[in-house]
Amino acid sequence: LGIVTEPLTAATATDIGLPSTTKGLLVRSVLDDSPAAASGICSSEDGAAGACPPDVIVSVEGKPVKTEEDLKAALSSAVHGVVTLEIASGTKDHKGTTRVERVMLH
What we know:
Radius of gyration: 13 Å
Strand content: 25-35%
Number of strands: 6
Largest sheet: 6 strands, antiparallel
Low-confidence stretches: none
Number of helices: 4
Mean pLDDT: 84
Oligomer: single chain
């Protein structure tokens, strides 16, 4: 996938414009030329630069992810090298937005 993540805390969720109850993995960085970069996933590094709000991976293939282990387990079950990610992004009103991304892993 080409990302570095960390578990989202309530404080960080609020800081990036998401409800404090949001659960998932904050995307800390996205590797250049990775499947995540090709899909337009934004990281907290991008957010700090003002490029886009950082993304939080909420689920993979419909399974909630809260830890790196959850993410690895979900990615290992990818069919045909494609996964569906539910991603939350912050907004100024702290309601957040959610989108679905299909990411080819190869």
